[in-house]
Amino acid sequence: MQITITRPDDWHLHLRDGAAMAAVLPHSARQFARAIVMPNLRPPVTTVAVAGAYRARILAALPQGVSFAPLMTLYLTDSTPPEEIRRAAASGFVHAVKLYPAGATTNSDSGVSDIGRCAAVLAVMEECGLPLLVHGEVTDPAIDVFDREKVFIERILQPLLLRHPRIRLVFEHITTSDAADFVRDCGDNVAATITAHHLLYNRNAIFAGGIRPHHYCLPVLKREQHRQALLGAATSGNPKFFLGTDSAPHSQASKEAACGCAGCYTAAAALELYAEAFESMAALDRLEAFASFHGADFHRLPRNAGKITLRQEEWLLPTAFAYADGEALVPLRAGERLRWRLLD
Ligand code: NCD
Ligand code: ZN
Prior knowledge:
Elements: E1 2-6, E2 10-13, H1 18-31, E3 34-37, H2 48-61, E4 69-75, H3 82-91, E5 94-99, H4 119-128, E6 132-134, H5 148-163, E7 169-171, H6 177-185, E8 190-194, H7 196-200, H8 224-234, E9 241-243, H9 252-255, H10 270-280, H11 287-298, E10 307-316, E11 321-322, E12 328-329, E13 337-342
Parallel strand pairs: 2-3, 3-4, 4-5, 5-6, 6-7, 7-8, 8-9
Antiparallel strand pairs: 1-10, 10-13, 11-12
Helix pairs in contact: 3-4
The structure holds N-carbamoyl-L-aspartate and zinc ion (ZN).
C-alpha cells in the first residue's frame, strides 16, 4: 500500500548552524518544502538582519538542486523594540516571532522574563498580523514539570489573549489535553503544532527499562491520556492543528550524559513517524491536511504544488548519523523498525 500527498511543510524546526546545520538540513529538505526555523541559536536570532544572514547560510548549505524554503523567525526578548517587529513584518522572509519564557528550554536564557514588558511589541504583532509562536511552559521551579504547560495556559496564555484578542498565535508542540482543548475553544487566530514524538510516545518511554535520553524533550512527554487527546486533535481534521516536528538535534555525547540535553531528532524520518501515528487511528486520509494544508493556510502562504509518496514497507532507521565535529547524532527510533518509507 502507498499514499501520495501534497508535499508537506514543517512548522517548527531546529536547524542549528555551521557543520551541525549542514548535517541535518538534507533530511528536512528531502521531506519538506518549507520549514519555520527556530531562532534559538547562540547568540539568538533577535533581529531581521541576523535572521537574513542566517537564512542565507541555510540556503548556501542546501545540497545542489534541492529546493527548500527556510521561513525565518525572530527570538523575542524583554527588550525587542516594536520597530524590529515592523521591520520583520515588512521583510518578506521573517514569518513569525518566537516566545521562549526565559530558562524554559535549550538556549532560552535571553528569552522573555516578563511578558508584561512585551505589550508594545505584541500590539504591533496584532496590528501587522505577524504570528507569535509560543513555547508554552512556565519556568516556576515550584510547578511540577509535568504541569508546566497547563499552568502556562492559566497564568500566561489566557491573560495574553485577553489583552491581545486578535493576535495570531501558535501554541507550539502541545503535549496535553488541556492545551488541545484550549486551542480548540479559542478563535481562529489561535492554532497549535503537534510533534510526531508526542503522538507516538507517552512518558513511560523515558523510563522503559532504564533512563532513555533520546526520549527526553521539552515539553516533556506526558501521560497516555494526553497522548490520546493529541492523536484525537491531530486526526480530527480541525485546521487549527498542524505538523511541527520540533526536530531538535543534539550530539550523542550531549544527550547520553549525566545532564543530557532536551530534544528528539526526528527530521530524518518525520513523515514516516507521523504516518504511523495517523495509521494507528485509521486516519491516514487526514494526514495530508494536517501535514500539508492547515499550516500553510494559517500562515497565509500558498499550499505546495509538489507531491510525496509514502509506502508501507518496513525498514530500519540507522543507529546514528554523522553530526558536527566528528560526533554522532542519534535519531528517535535509532536502529528500530519503521512501518512507512518515504520514496525518493
Ligand atoms: C529544543 C532545542 O533543543 O533547541 N529542545 C526540545 O526539547 N524541544 C528547544 C525547544 O524547542 O524547546
Ligand atoms: Zn523547538
